[in-house]
Amino acid sequence: MNIRQALEAAKVAGLDLVEVAPEAEPPVCRIMDFGRYKYQQSKKLSESRKKASVIEIKEVKFRPKTDEHDYQFKLRNILKFLAEKNKIKVSLVFHGREIAHSHIGQSLMERLIQDVAEAGQPDSLPKLEGRSMIMILSPK
């Protein structure tokens, strides 16, 4: 059907002539209510956004001299975050001359990996970046 006939048919129906596939030979058009079509597309988009899961990255900071009670408290928070399907950035910050004893921080991170083994696993192993040791944990 030529363009004039298609426009006339759309006008008689009280709808719009919308080009669907401009790359095709000849171009493909459809007679539809364009406002309603745009509304349905926006509804589909918002519905798909609702179903998408958003993964947050929570951060928990340690020090090499973190006491046992504080360690247990932070461990409980990490397990809670993993249960909520969030990723956790565990950072261990060294101040002053503590950097000379980075093995203490390494052992703390390994202990943490063992303690959260049933709820999550490390995405990246602990690595020293400047004065902080960083590790990412993700839920299983």
Largest sheet strand order: 3-4-6-5
Helical region count?
Answer: 4
Number of DSSP E strands: 6
Structural shape? rod-shaped
At CATH level 3, the topology of the largest domain is Translation Initiation Factor IF3
User: Mean pLDDT, nearest integer?
Assistant: 91
CATH top level label of the largest domain: Alpha Beta
General description of the model:
- This protein has 140 residues and is α+β, with helices and mostly antiparallel strands.
- The chain contains 4 helices and 6 strands; from the N terminus they run αββαβαβαββ.
- The protein has a 4-stranded mixed beta sheet, covered by helices on one side. It has a two-stranded antiparallel sheet with strand order 1-2.
- The mean pLDDT is 91.
Features:
single chain, 140 residues, alpha+beta, Ubiquitin-like (UB roll), Translation Initiation Factor IF3, 2 domains, four-stranded mixed sheet, 42% helix, 30% strand, rod-shaped
Summarize this entry quickly.
The protein is an alpha+beta fold and 140 residues long. The chain is built from four helices and six strands.
Topology diagram in text:
Blueprint: H1 3-13, E1 16-21, E2 28-32, H2 34-51, E3 57-62, H3 68-83, E4 87-93, H4 102-115, E5 120-129, E6 132-139
Parallel strand pairs: 3-4
Antiparallel strand pairs: 1-2, 4-6, 5-6
